[in-house]
Write a structure and sequence with these properties.
The complex is a heterotrimer of chains A (505), B (615) and C (104). Chain A is an all-alpha fold and 505 residues long. Chain A is built from 22 helices and two strands. In chain A, strands 1-2 form a two-stranded antiparallel ribbon. In chain A, helix 10 runs antiparallel to helix 12. Chain A is globular. In chain C, 11% of the residues are buried. The chains are: A mainly alpha (505), B mainly alpha (615), C mainly alpha (104). The interface between A and B is large, with 55 and 54 residues.
Chain lengths: 505, 615, 104
């Protein structure tokens, strides 16, 4: 029930934001922030009493009663479709990340959005609701529904409030995710049909479908359906090309949500569905997936280097970081999976912050072109220092969250295959190259004549507060990640036991 | 006291954070007080720990918390102090404090005074964590931390793009080594199941035997990190460029502390290296080769800081030579004395640069002996120690290295000979510097004399550069004993006399009007060799061609997303189909009717052909 | 009632011929008036077929259908002429090839 309420709070909050635009232009953002914080408080108060969470009790994937929360009520009984929501360690972490970054996104939209604020904040909240649904839905039909729901408000956010080339970017984003989503729908329906042939009943429930027996070829094709859908969202090479456009053109808050949260649904899908539903097929496919991950790491990093658009560079850095996740997920051992989840969280914060900086620069300079920046540290020392922090975090400085993630992934992969780990580690070098170039082109060097003339305001209290929260989060993740590791371990332990891929070299 | 060693890195760290947060609200005076004071306090605490250690030399271990725990992986945030760590800590906080004090005057006119001290304090904290770490992962944290601080400080004057480029080069080149080291960590962790240094060494000695391939691979990977950080061939090219930073930074990071981290790493993991003779040989050969190469380059440079930078590379080469031949104590000893005299030389050059309006070219200096007496004497003592003239600190440590190299079986005498050649060149270039800068005619007039904040560190370092050789380091428990057999007397005599010969040669060549050397350097061959040496053996050019340019070309090729060409092809295919189909939509009714009729008749025809009975 | 003198096949032939003429007119005429007239011819051709068939089998259905077609034709003429007026007003011509705004 808690989970359903959480969704309803966000959905209703969206309508509230929509309505109160008529009263005052600045009201929607306050409402949105209040709704997100209310949802966060509601979630925290409801989970703090859970004995399973406090005892860090491990959950079994196929047994919903061992999960932190489980809710099931019939929806379309004729086809065995239920409203089934459940929460385990992984989903809990993802939901917390979603709500936190949702608040960050509202803060990013504070002064950025000047047109139809109410509709914007409503779309933002609905996207969050869709994402939350994706992280909680354990009925595959419902999961697909949320998968599509989160897409549509996001499309509007890009298409209406985006930058100069928004139409193209929004359409590209929509077509990529929609086409891949349909592929997943086909795979879901086929999976249900296969399951019905064996058991004789229609069911879309994850817990029932986990035990589906099928022959190898079928499993392989169905696995590919899920895999492609999730990897497009992740995005992994070679399906990543929608991302630089979408991120670049989206308004700041949209970029924060896209990079911080939406990409993680792909990774979550891989961990939750693609691998556990088809363990054998995934095992055969793992080397290919890991190779795609490595190519993504290197490709994204190299492509980032030559970008002139601040946001595009950060977008390509996301491609590189998501490559680490793909690599880690298909190594499928505790270390690598812990690393992948850590990477989702740490990347969420570091990239969201970088996009906010990009947005702040765009607001002040009216350009994202780094050729028109340079030497901005002089005028905006606070922003420069903050940017330096997050860039150093992004390049994986030990002591910050991203390092823990990358180290765990590489360590996990190393135990499977040394050469893959070595190739992945090259991403640390290439990552340093583009990160430092980003800093150089924007904040260091000779001040550009264009930007030098503008009176540039440094980060104000609202921005500094948001940024410091994310900085503290990254430092905490980097120096004491244990609470996060413990919570995700409750889910990963059972997941690994029940679907031991047994990938060895 | 011992349980509070974590306070030592915390002090500069806290001061750094405070300086960053409150930079705009602090006066210059309080910035200096905070920046210098925190390191000074750390130095005092280190001294207290050291005193306590001398009376009771059991190693100290302090665990703060478990960093992360997954299955058997459980690195801790935990500090460990033994003799080696203590020596390093004394160097870091002691020399560090002196350099901070020097900086407080050197940087007094800079706008970003607080930012400078924030970075510098953070560096000290990271360096302390590096040497205090009891496991390799925490060591790696410090290792990367000092790398970032080095990046920030080299590019401190960020408005000049050249500084930014130098800083990036420093960071990325060392990152290449660091990545090798990280892979080494992964290997050790996977094979031996721990990163705790003592356990690791113990398990390694038990599981692996001498000459196995795994320890060699692991050692070479760690060595990769060491040569990156310590600027050894072939990853040394960043150090001369790193001189773009403020001079005290060069003294602290690029002479006394950070660049010797590689030496520390190898000394720390010496049990592992002992398992792999081939890795030891590699260390020794890289050391001696780098040493000679850098010394040759230092001989022809004209920028005072670049001379010192190449000299640093060369001296660290000696330390690597010492490590490679198993003379652990000698290597660490040279690390310490080098920290004293090289910091002294850098600070001396900083004083000159400070007083000569940021002039770096030695040929525009001259005659400073009478104008800057304190600087002259400190430079003279520093150069004497660098050249290893008898009775200076450098003499003791370098002599020890050369003698132990000589005792090495098989190619020991060769290493000794090469080391002597290096010592000769070292003496020549260091006194070339002294003769050109301090003797002869004045070419630029200093506009001020240095104040006490700069004079005091110079004086203290002068004293240390002389008496440093008499220190006995508490390293007996850390390293295995080396055979103390004495080499023949003639070896020692030659070792002592070669630096003197070098000084004499420098006197002939560079003192006064230099008529002899001038005519000789005019010959085309010497010119060309000089050019080759000056460019650092053209290594930058080579790396540029084989790595940097191709990488940039690749990046430019990817700029407009070549993968999109594929998706665009799909789009174009769709558009082509659309064009052809929409041509049928002519808007003419007659055309529609005709096509309907034709379609109807064709459908009926086909239907009759397929199923004649149905119609 | 006297036997039908004209055989059914002949009437159907005439009706087909009329239908084809109307269709040909529809296909080749450009003037909207002629198109409407061709349509009328086609409608009447089918009506003729119904009448003939109804007479042949001695059933009223054919005449019912004829009445229906008659009313449809009347309605069609009303709408069609309305369109003609609009076309004339908009395009200043009755040539239907000029009203090709819907082309792709």
């Amino acid at each position: 029930m808690v989970m359903l309420n959480l969704l309803l709070i966000l959905l209703a909050g969206g309508f509230l934001a929509l309505l109160c635009e008529r009263i005052d232009k600045s009201l929607p953002r306050i409402v949105a922030l209040a709704v997100i914080i209310a949802a966060l408080i509601y979630l925290i108060t409801s989970i703090s009493g859970l004995s399973a969470l406090n005892a860090l009790q491990a959950s079994t994937p196929s047994d919903p009663s061992s999960w932190f929360m489980h809710f099931k009520t019939p929806w379309i009984p004729a086809f065995g479709i239920h409203i089934e929501l459940a929460l385990d360690g992984i989903s809990l972490l993802m939901i917390l990340l979603t709500l936190l970054l949702g608040a960050v996104a509202v803060s990013a939209s504070w002064t950025d959005i000047q047109y139809r604020q109410g509709v914007f904040e409503a779309n933002l909240l609905w996207t969050l609701a869709g994402v939350l649904g994706v992280f909680m839905a354990l009925d595959l039909f419902l999961f697909f529904l949320f998968w599509e729901i989160m897409l549509i408000p996001m499309y509007f956010m890009i298409a209406i409030w985006g930058h100069e080339n928004r139409g193209y970017a929004a359409m590209k984003f929509f077509i990529f995710t929609q086409a891949s989503g349909l592929l997943m729908l086909v795979a879901i329906l086929a999976l249900v049909a296969v399951n019905r042939e064996v058991t004789g009943v229609y069911t879309f429930s994850y817990f029932d479908l986990l035990q589906t027996k099928m022959d190898e070829t079928t499993a392989y094709w169905l696995m590919l359906g899920f895999f492609i859908s999730f990897v497009v969202k992740l995005p992994g090479f070679p399906f990543h090309t929608w991302l630089p456009d979408a991120h670049t053109q989206a308004p700041t808050a949209g970029s924060v949500i896209l990079a911080g949260i939406l990409l993680k649904t792909g990774a979550y899908g891989l961990i939750r569905f693609a691998v556990p539903l088809f363990p054998d097929a995934s095992m055969h496919f793992a080397p290919v997936a890991m190779l795609l991950g490595i190519v993504g790491i290197i490709y994204g990093a190299i492509a980032a280097l030559s970008q002139t658009d601040f946001k595009r560079l950060v977008a390509y850095s996301s491609v590189s970081h998501m490559g680490f996740i793909l690599l880690g997920v298909y190594a499928w051992n505790t270390l690598a999976l812990q690393g992948a989840i850590m990477q989702m969280i740490a990347h969420g914060f570091s990239t969201a912050a970088l996009f906010m900086i990009a947005g702040a620069l765009q607001e002040r300079l009216h350009t994202r072109d780094m050729r028109e920046m340079g030497g901005l540290w002089q005028q905006m020392p606070r922003m420069g220092a903050v940017a330096m922090f997050f860039i150093i975090a992004a390049l994986g400085l030990p002591g910050l969250g991203n390092f823990v993630a990358e180290f765990l992934i590489l360590l996990g992969v190393f135990q499977i295959n040394e050469w893959m780990a070595v190739a992945g580690a090259m991403g640390l070098i290439t990552g340093a190259v583009y990160s430092l170039i980003l800093m150089q082109r924007s904040f260091q060097g000779q001040p550009n004549t264009h930007s030098d003339k503008l009176p540039l305001a440094d980060f104000g209290p609202r921005e500094m507060l948001t940024m410091s929260l994310m900085m503290i989060a990254l430092i905490a993740l980097g120096l004491y990640p244990q609470p996060i590791l413990d919570v995700s371990q409750t889910a990963l332990g059972g997941l690994l036991d029940s679907t031991a891929l047994g990938i060895t070299q | 006291m011992r349980d509070f060693v974590w306070f030592i890195p915390l002090l500069p760290l806290a001061s750094s954070v405070l300086l960053m947060i409150a930079s705009s609200r602090l006066t210059r005076r309080s910035v200096a007080l905070l920046g210098v004071g925190s390191v000074g306090l750390a130095a005092v605490l280190t001294g207290a720990v050291a005193l306590e250690f001398l009376s009771d030399s059991t190693p100290v271990e302090v665990t703060l918390w478990t960093w992360m725990k997954i299955d058997s992986l459980a690195p801790r945030i935990s500090f460990y102090i033994d003799g080696l760590t203590l020596v390093m800590m004394c160097v870091i906080t002691g020399v560090g404090f002196l350099i901070h004090l020097f900086s407080s005057e050197f940087m007094q006119d800079d706008d970003s005074y607080a930012r400078y001290f924030a970075y510098l304090n953070m560096f000290i904290a990271a360096m302390l964590i590096l040497v205090l770490a009891d496991n390799l992962l925490l060591l790696y944290l410090g290792w990367e931390g000092v790398g970032v601080c080095s990046y920030l400080l080299v590019g401190f004057w960020y408005r000049d793009s050249a500084n930014g480029r130098a800083a990036r080069k420093a960071f990325i080149v060392t990152r290449i080594g660091d990545t090798a080291m990280l892979i080494g960590l992964l290997l050790l962790l996977t094979e031996l199941g721990t990163l705790n240094i003592r356990t690791l060494m113990q398990v390694a000695s038990e599981q692996w035997s001498i000459g196995d391939s795994l320890p060699t691979i692991a050692c070479l990977l760690l060595l990769g990190g060491a040569i990156g950080k310590s600027a050894q061939f072939p990853l040394h090219t960043w150090l001369p460029d790193a001189m773009a930073g403020p001079t005290p930074v060069s003294a602290l990071i690029h002479a006394a502390t950070m660049v010797t981290a590689g030496v520390y790493l190898i000394a720390r993991t010496h049990d592992l290296f002992l398992l792999s003779p081939s890795a030891m040989h590699t260390v020794a050969f890289i050391g001696i080769a780098t040493s000679l190469m850098a010394a040759g380059t230092a001989l022809v440079q004209s920028d005072i800081k670049r001379i010192l930078a190449y000299s640093t590379i060369s001296q660290i080469g000696y330390m690597f030579l010492a490590l490679g031949v198993g003379a652990w104590t000698a290597g660490v000893f040279h690390l310490m004395t080098h920290a004293f005299f090289k910091a002294l030389l850098f600070l001396g050059s900083g004083a000159i640069i400070h007083c000569l309006h940021h002039e770096h070219n030695i040929f525009k200096m001259g005659g400073l002996r009478t104008r800057m007496p304190i600087t002259f004497w400190s430079f003279l003592i520093g150069s004497a120690a660098l050249a290893a003239l008898p009775m200076t600190a450098g003499f003791f440590s370098k002599d020890l290295i050369l003698l132990q190299a000589y005792q090495r079986p098989d190619f020991g005498p060769w290493l000794w000979g090469a080391g002597l050649l290096g010592a000769l060149i070292t003496a020549i270039y260091s006194f070339r510097l002294v003769f050109i800068v301090f003797f002869g005619d004045a070419k630029t007039e200093p506009d001020r004399e240095i104040g006490w904040q700069m004079a005091l560190p110079l004086t203290v370092l002068c004293a240390l550069s002389i008496i440093g050789g008499y220190f006995s380091l508490p390293l007996a428990d850390v390293f295995p004993l080396v055979n103390a057999e004495h080499p023949p007397h003639w070896v020692e005599i030659i070792s002592i006399s070669v630096p003197l010969l070098g000084v004499f040669l420098a006197y002939i060549g560079f003192y006064g009007q230099r008529p002899r050397i001038d005519s000789w350097t005019k010959t085309p061959l010497v010119q060309r060799v000089g050019q080759f040496l000056r460019s650092g053996w053209r290594l930058d050019e080579v790396f540029d061609r084989i790595a940097v340019k191709p990488y940039y070309n690749l990046a430019n090729a990817l700029q407009n997303e070549p993968i999109d060409r594929f998706y665009e092809a799909i789009v174009r295919l769709n558009q082509a189909i659309h064009r052809h189909l929409s041509a049928t939509q002519s808007g003419r009714m007659r055309w529609y009717i005709t096509s309907m009729m034709v379609g109807l008749i064709a459908t009926l025809g086909v239907a009759m052909k397929i199923a004649p009975g149905a119609i | 009632m006297q036997e039908l003198v004209v055989p059914l096949n002949h009437v159907l032939l005439v009706s087909t011929l009329l239908f084809c003429i109307g269709m040909l007119g529809l296909m080749i005429r450009r003037n909207i008036i002629f198109i409407l007239m061709s349509l009328e011819v086609m409608l009447n051709a089918s009506a003729l077929a119904f009448i003939a068939a109804g007479a042949h089998w001695g059933q009223p259905d054919g005449q019912v259908m004829f009445m229906l077609i008659l009313s449809v034709a009347a309605a069609e003429v009303a709408v069609g002429l309305g369109l003609v007026l609009q076309v004339q007003r908009r395009f200043k011509t009755l040539d239907m090839d000029d009203a090709d705004r819907m082309r792709g």
